[in-house]
Specification:
This protein is an alpha+beta fold and about 220 residues long. A four-stranded antiparallel β-sheet has the order 1-2-6-5. The radius of gyration is 20 Å and the shape is globular.
Length: about 220
């Protein structure tokens, strides 16, 4: 099959100084992103902000351009309540039975437990589903490639877009997450990947004191 190609038009044209400044500006903003568990349920979040962040995520590169993701946006309070109840049931099992002591010790400084009020208090929940395979118009299964990598890249763009728009976020992966497929009536080819709670922080929101690794710890250069 002959490739169908068009000429690439590189329309972001910056001087070297502008490029460096843009990179620095992005870093100085994104480094302030924190996982926030305390949300203001009383202040409305314009849905356009969240929808545009999801559209930005959907521009991500993906294996063979299969775009193996689906996003479910939930603000309905009844649905959020069902998700919270189901998630807390799984989290109770995790913290009391399934999680090894090593894992619980690693989480101790963050202070998390099975109680997940953010699932109700955050104005929006974005539930990301990974499509392990697609279905063509004739009902045939088509394998998707590099699904986790593709959805992971898209999720990074989504989190960055929400943060740059002035919202805070929390990523949540109750284990197992099959209840999300049932509650949200998703098809069999989709697997729950991540819940992102987003909105404005409450006035009394707190975050744990943490540090990030320095570049010398995570960057190797061959110049």
């Amino acid at each position: 099959m002959k490739k169908k190609l068009v000429k690439y038009e590189h329309n972001i044209k910056l001087s070297t100084k502008q490029m460096i400044n843009t990179a620095n500006d992005f870093f100085n903003v994104i480094k302030k992103r924190r996982t926030v568990r305390d949300y203001d349920p009383t202040t409305d979040v314009p849905i356009d902000i969240v929808e545009n962040a999801i559209k930005s995520a959907a521009t991500a590169p993906s294996g063979a351009n299969q775009q193996p993701w689906h996003y479910v946006l939930v603000s309905n309070q009844n649905l959020k309540n069902k998700i919270r109840i189901a998630a807390e049931d799984e989290e109770k099992e995790f913290y009391s039975r399934r999680a090894p002591d090593e894992w619980l010790n690693a989480l101790e400084h963050i202070g998390t437990d099975q109680n997940k009020p953010h699932l109700e208090n955050a104005p929006f929940l974005i539930i990301i589903f990974a499509q392990r395979y697609s279905i063509d118009k004739n009902g045939n299964k088509l394998k998707n490639y590099y699904v986790s990598e593709s959805v992971g890249i898209a999720t990074g763009i989504l989190l960055s877009s929400l943060h740059m728009s002035g919202l805070v976020t929390l990523t949540h992966t109750p284990s197992p997450m099959k209840f999300l497929s049932k509650i949200l009536k998703r098809p069999e080819n989709e697997s729950p990947y991540l819940i992102i709670a987003t909105g404005y922080p409450s006035k009394n929101a707190t975050v744990p004191i943490i540090t990030k690794k320095s570049p010398s710890e995570f960057l190797t250069k061959y110049l």
